[in-house]
Each structure stands twice: as structure tokens, then as C-alpha cells.
Amino acid sequence: MSATNLARYQDMARRRVMLDTAGVGLPIIMALATLAWRLSGVWALMITSLAALVLLALVAMKRAHAFDQAWLTAALDAKVPALEDSSALLFTEPEALGGLVALQRNRLQARIAEVDALDLRPAWSRRAIAWTAGIGSAAILATVLWPSIARHGSSSQELKGPLSRLAAPRVQSVRLRITPPAYTGLPASEQTSLDARIPEGSHLGWVIAITGRPSSTSLDFPGEPRLPLHLAGGRWAGERAFTRSALYRIDATGLPRQRLHRLEVMADAAPIVRVVAPDSQLAMVRPGQARWTPMFEASDDYGVEASATLRVIVTKGEGENVTTTERSMSLRGQGDARRKRYSTTLDLAREGMAPGSDLIVQLVVSDNRAPGRHKVEGPSVILRWPADLALADGLDGMMRQVMPAYFRSQRQIIIDAEALIAQRSRIASDRFVDRSNALGGDQAQLRLRYGQFMGEEDKGGGGLSLPTNDAPGALDLPTNDAPSPAAKPAEQDDHGHDDHADTAAPSTFGQMSDVVAQYGHAHDSGDAATLFDPGTRSTLAQALDAMWSSERALRQGKPQEALPHAHRALDLLKTAQQATRIFLARTSPKLPPIDLSRRLTGKREGIAAGALTPIARTPADVPAAEAWRALAETPAAAPVRLDALERWVGANRARLTDPLALSAAIDTVRNEPACLDCRRRLRALLWGALDRPTGGVQRREPPSARGRRYLDALR
After folding, report:
1. Cis peptide before 592 (omega within 30 of 0)
2. Which of 57, 116, 220, 430 has its CA 20 to 30 A from that of 103?
3. pTM tops 0.85
4. How far is it, in rounded angstroms, from Cα 506 to Cα 171?
5. CA torsion sign, 474 to 478 to 482 to 486?
6. Among 368, 410, 346, which residue's Cα sits nearest to residue 573?
7. Cross-strand pairs, 708
8. Residue of 183, 358, 176, 372 lying closest to 281 (CA atoms)
9. CA–CA distance, 59 with 123 (Å, rounded to integer)
10. Full strand arrangement of the beta sheet holding 334-335
11. Per-residue pLDDT at 94
12. In whole angstroms, how far apart are CA 201 and each of 228, 240, 489, 562?
């Protein structure tokens, strides 16, 4: 016999101990599985059995692992004296031994035949197996018989034996378990009422006891799939999660039709953010102020996140020189889970505040719902550092030291053109040309807006001085070879005025008014026009020429060639913006003249209003109004059209305050037509759901005799 044959004693011992463990544990597993099945159903039986079997297998493997080679050598030495306590040599390779050790191994190899009839398996745990078998059998028997005994013992008024099966089923007890979602932080609860108000996303579990043992039971949700209930431990159970409100009833075989019960789902509201400090959304920098501490408060129905994001935006400059910097910082809230306050102290110098700049802060918070968090941007708070603006006194208008708000888009055209050039390699050529042409259109609109101050019209006609004029700026023509709108000849001027050379009055040499009447058009009046000094007009004329060149290049799909002209136009506009003074004249509104011929004549034509047309009543609420009138009578005298009323509720569900209550009341009246209280409740709900009639115009009382004489005299 070799060492391999000796190893079979080890396998036999391991099998014996695993079977012994199974004999001890299986009765206990069967008792636990039976109890789980009676309490919670088949799923609990399967889960409990699987878990117990896995645990039993782990215990058996651990016990079998103890019977290793060391145990075998010790058992052989103890049971067989002929091995001379040297059985470990039988499991050693002969090549690894030498001298007396090898001689000893050969001697043991000759005596190994004495071990052939040896039995090294451990003994059975008979006492433990007997105890567990008895306890498990008793537990299984008690589990199977206990529900029947309790049911028959507690309901002494019920019929016994076969007569109990003939009785009509009825709901004996109800247990509703509500498990709110984790984001609410609310504990699970149980109640005996089928009506409940639950948070959005809650998980509901029903355990219903029904006498009479119906063959099937379910929860009926009108307009939604049913929820079948399964029998577990003599009770009907089922589970479902809800994200919206619903109506339902218990429906069982032989059970009378039940009234609808209501599950009202409370939607998770978004957080509310309000400003605590300062007390208004616009605050001014105080003299000597160096720091600013805004404070926000965020509240939520279930809780807000401890950390929020504060957006900090700083704007600097005026006109086209406005620059904006934005950054975000994280704030830690203080307070309880449902209401927290967030605040920080900002250093005005570090933020880059200066006269004429604004510091804007906005808090962004989220609630603790996951997934689907509500992210809310709170109100913005502005800290303004006003700049000194001087106003003119007297004269004819208001003096400003900056150009009006019309001059502020040339810089954006430059930025867009540079961005388009940078993207040229990533977009198609036709798309590139289209975007360049669109920029050319923006440049044209801006040129026409500026041209209004120089006497040009909307279609691009020239209002600048003619080439023969020696006024300042007349010789500042564009350097490119394409004529600008300011340098078009007179025959191309698209003004649309009815002026002809052959009808012009003879001019007087040297008078400006006669020269303008003969060679050009006066597009402004002396009182209402914006007045520029000659230097400013020359600068604006050059800016218009540069805009024309930029527009031409953009229209041709060459934004890189348009950039120099666009930059030159921007420089000229900034030069004009820094002019000494600009006056905006005050003009009075032009009201229509008063017709004096109608005064004190007594004529009422066109004054007295005609007869008012009657207000047409929309038939939208006709089914509800008819049902409301019918519900005032007795059930036999005035039947209610409940089907039409139910369709009306479904069509107007969005504007109704409580459509679920109306649907439940309609269902109750349909099932119990003789219930007067049910009819009164439905009628009261309909009264609140009907639209209020529009107030009509009351006809005034007829005039008295004196009043009639006065009206007749007016006619």
C-alpha cells in the first residue's frame, strides 16, 4: 500500500464529518424555512433556505478542513504501533531521504499492509442529531398548526367548519407599512388606515386579513394596472412604490365593492433661497468700506446640502470698455438640515473693485435628494461703486461726457471675427463664408446706426460733404479702391426725396442753406438734431469709411482682411467718444391738434358707445353644472349623468384643485346611489370646481323727466 492509498482514510473522515454536520443542521434549517414561509411567503422561504444552506456548507467545510495530512499521520501513529511513530516518512519522496532515514522508510513500507483494515472515521454525533431532529420536528409542527389554532381561538363569533367557507368575505384587519425614501430622512411607519399622505417615491406594503378565504385578492387602481396580492401566513400581502397620487380599493373574490381610498403623494419641493443681508438687492459702497459680507438663507422641506456655491462676478468699466470676471467659491452652511445660512466676507480690493464697477454675488444650492436633485439659483445681490457723473446746468439740454448708448457694438464685431478666424480649420468653407457674411450684416447695421448722426438714411445714402466741399473731413476718403457710402456720387443717392434740380430755387452765392438745398439734403432740424463739433464729425466720417471697408471684407468671406479696418473704426469711435461735450436737445411730444369746430356743439357722433353684445357662455362646465343641479333632487327624481361628469373631470384635471376627491366622490355615488350624504359631498365639491360666472354690465336706471328734457335738448 502506498501513501496515496493511505490518503483515502483522510477522504473517508472528511465525508463522515460533512454528513454528520448535515444531519445536525438540516432539521434546524427546515424549521426556520417553514417559519419564514408562514410569516412572509414563498420568497422568504427561498431566501431563508438558501442562506441557511450556505451557512451549513461553510461549517461542514471548516470541520472537514481539520482532517488534513497532519491529522492522518497522528492517527496512524496512534492506531498502528508497528509504524514506530514514523508514519510521516510514508508521505515523503524517497529521493529526498538518505542514510538511516531511508532505511527506516523502507521498513515502514514493508509493514504498511497492517493498516489495510484500519477505520479512522470519526464517530457519529448521535445525541446531537437526535436532539436537533426532535426540536426541528416540534418547531415545524407548531409553525404549521399555530395560525389555524390562533384564528379559530380568537374569532369565537365566526362559524366553524364548512359553514365558515360559505360566509361572505369581509376585510378583518389592515396593516399599511410606509417606507419613505432615504432623502427625506423620515423613519418607516405603520398604520391601520388605507388612506395615507406619503412623500414622493415612498414604498408601500399592505398586509390584509380577509375572512372567508377568497381565491384571489388584488388592489384595484382605476386607470392604472392592478396590484395582485399573494397569500402569506393567512394574510394577503403586496408592495409598490408611488411617485404620484392615486385612488384604489380592495378587490377580492366575493367581497362587496369597496369605496375608493386615497394615497396623496407630497411632491418634493425645490429649496427656497432668500437674501438676509443686505436688506435690498442693490447696495452702494459706503465711504471707506473695504469689506462686504453678504448672507443668504436656504430652506427645504426635507433638507439642503451643507455646501453651496457662491458665484462672484465683478464688472469694470463703461461703454465698450466693460470687462467681466467671474469665479465660484464653496460655502459651508450653518444651521439644521432644513434651514441653513451661508455667508462669507469679500475683500473689495482683492476682488478688484473700483469706482464705476459692480460686485454681483449669487448663491446656488441643492437639496439632499439623490438622484434628481433640485438645483436652485438664488437672487442676485449687487454691490455698486458709483462713478462721478457731472451734469450740465442751463443750456438747452443735458450734457454727458460719454457717447450715447448707440456706440457699443464695434468691439463685439472684432471679438466675433477673431473667434471665426480661430475656428476656420474646424468648420466647412461654406459655413465659414455664411458666418462671415452674417458678421458683415451686423457691421452694416452698426454703420447705418452711426450714419444717422451724420445725415445718412437707412439704405446707406451719403450725407457727407461732396468732393467739392472744403469742409473739415471732406478729404478723409477711404484708402481702399471700393467707394464708401460716404463717397457715392449724387446720382446713386437712394434718399427717396422728391427734390429735382430743375425745380430748385435760384441760390445765393455764399449762403450755406442755399448750398445744402441745391447739392444735398438736410436730414436734421436745428432744434432736434444732435450737434457735433467739426472735429467730431470728421472723426465719425472716417469711422464710417473704416466700417464700410470692414463690411466689404466680411461680405466677401475675408474676416482676416476686415480686422484692420474694424480696429481702426473702433479707435476712431473711442476718439469720438472722448469728445469734449455732447448735447442732447429736449423736444416736446407732438400731440394731434384739437378740433375746435366740435366744441360746444352738442354733436355726439362717434362718442356714444353702441349696445353691448351679450357675453357668450362657454359650454365647458355644462356637465358639471347639470350634475350640480341634478344632485339637489332626490335620486329617483333626477338621475345624474356620472359618465359625462367623469369625462369632464378627466378633461379639466389640470385646473381643478382636488381632482382625486371628485373622482372618489363620483365613484361612491355610482356604487351607492341611495346615499344622500355621498350626493351632498359630491355637490359641494362641484360647487368649488365650477368657474365663477363673469360679471355682466348692469343697465343703468332710466333718467327722470328732467334728465330726459336735458338729453332731448342735446339732440
Report:
1. no
2. 116
3. no
4. 112
5. negative
6. 410
7. none
8. 358
9. 18
10. 272-277, 295-299, 339-343, 334-335
11. 63
12. 20, 10, 76, 60
Task: Taking residues 265-276, report their average pLDDT.
Answer: 91
Max mean pLDDT among 124-133, 307-316, 595-604, 664-673 falls in 307-316
CB atoms closer than 10 angstroms to residue 355: 10
Span 364-370, mean pLDDT? Answer: 87
Structure confidence by residue, pLDDT tens digits, 565-623: 999 999 988 887 776 444 444 445 567 777 777 777 777 676 655 566 655 555 567 88
40, 66, 378: which is closest to 74 by C-alpha?
Answer: 66
**Element of type H or E holding 170:** strand 170-179
Give the containing element (helix H, strand E) for 252.
strand 246-252
Measured CA to CA in angstroms, residue 287 lies from 261, 284, 358, 360, 392 at distances of: 66, 9, 15, 19, 25
DSSP 515-535: HHHHHS---S-TTTSPB--HH
Question: Amino acid identity, residue 449?
Answer: R
- Tell me, what DSSP letter sits at residue 120? -
Residue of higher predicted confidence among 322 and 611: 322
With vertex at residue 44, the alpha carbon angle to CA 43 and CA 45, rounded to the nearest 5 degrees, is 90
Dihedral, 5, 9, 14, 15 alpha carbons, nearest 10: 90
Q: Is residue 329 over pLDDT 90?
A: yes
The cell 466700417 sits on which residue? Answer: 547
Report the b/e string of 399-427 with b at 16+ CB within 10 A: eeeebeeebbbbbebbebbeebbeeeeee
Cell, residue 415: 471679438
Which grid cell is 351? Answer: 476682488
Please state, in angstroms and rounded to a whole number, the distance separating the CA atoms of residues 365 and 294.
Answer: 15
Q: How confident is the model at residue 541 (pLDDT cuts 50, 70, 90)?
A: confident
- Residue 502 phi/psi, 5-degree rounding, is -75, -15
User: Which stretches of 317-467 are assigned E, i.e. beta strand?
Assistant: 323-332, 334-335, 339-343, 346-347, 357-366, 375-385, 397-400
Three-state SS at 621 = helix
Q: How confident is the model at residue 655 (pLDDT cuts 50, 70, 90)?
A: confident
Burial class (CB in 10 A: 0-12, 13-18, 19+), 350: exposed
What whole-number distance in Å separates Cα of residue 563 and Cα of residue 415? Answer: 10
Residue 286 neighbours by CB under 8 Å, 6+ apart: none
Residue ranges of E strands in 267-338: 272-277, 282-284, 291-292, 295-299, 307-316, 323-332, 334-335
pLDDT digits (tens, 9 = 90+) for 175-211: 999 999 988 888 999 999 999 999 988 999 999 998 8
CA–CA distance, 304 with 368 (Å, rounded to integer)? 5
Q: Which amino acid is at 313?
A: I
Cis peptide bond N-terminal to 147, omega within 30: no
Q: Are 108 and 89 in contact (CB under 8 A)?
A: yes
What end-to-end distance do the CA atoms of the chain give, in Å? 144
Cell numbers given for 385: 461703486
**Euclidean distance between CA atoms 7 and 71, whole angstroms:** 11
